[in-house]
Request: fold
Amino acid sequence: MKIRDLDLGDFPVLLAPLEDITDVSYRLICKEQGADMVYTEFVSSDGLIRDAHKSLRKLVTLEAERPVGIQIFGADLDSMVEAARYAESANPDVIDINWGCPVKKVVSKGAGSGILKDIPKMIRITEAVVKAVNLPVTVKTRLGWDETDKPIVEVAERLQDVGIEAITIHGRTRSQLYSGVADWTLIGRVKDNQRMRIPVIGNGDISSPEHVVNAKNRYGVDGVMIGRAAIGNPWLFASVKQFMAEGTIPTEPTLTVRAKTALRHLETAIEYKGERTALVEMRKFYSGYFKGVPHFKTHKMQLITSLNVEEIKSILADLASIES
Reply:
């Protein structure tokens, strides 16, 4: 699968952009485990053009994580164009536009999946961003606004016609948020559309190697993007790769591996985000890192309540020393 000249292999598995999740520290870990491409947390166009510290920090990428995409969101054409140019100056491999976030505070401003109520505006902004930068522009979106309004087949065509070079489709409407089951049949219809020339990447409910193979074989997508299932489970990428190559699934990582990975993740996050932010955001990962570990509840409560970095490091070091 290629995004312009960027070759991602025969069937790439990508790490989805996730707010307060896919910072540089976690992207590096997922890359080590086999993610073919990673994305930044989504970056506010308004925040970028105001030089907001949080937005600027999200532009930090490293050579070791390439290929990497910077994802931007917003609802104002001029702001999105300026933000895209700003993001391009950070030298990612791709600029991705978020037309899919269902969170109320984003949607209420007409950004994210809020744009699905105004498809002509969606197309205008996308076309303007494509024309403003030299890098490939891609889009991540949803099937539509609700069950009665799912125009993704036509929308994908129109986005392609204004110059995007790949599209990722989450198999839910905005109204569904993350409830129910992702509908991959419409993603398959986009891929089956003979007018489509660009890669179609499927997203939604991908949580196992078997899901990936089913998406490939049943719906014909060019690749898949993994989101929530990857939180605290970077080993999912390695499992997918081994299953696709050999038909086998590797053994679960030992407790020592889990704890050492969490500790390295924390230390890198502190380096790039600062101690307090890293400690708070790491709380979202511990359940995934230690899923299925017996008697973990006591450790978990300590990990998610403490704001003392040395205490957290000590707990993780103790876990790493336990024989699995």
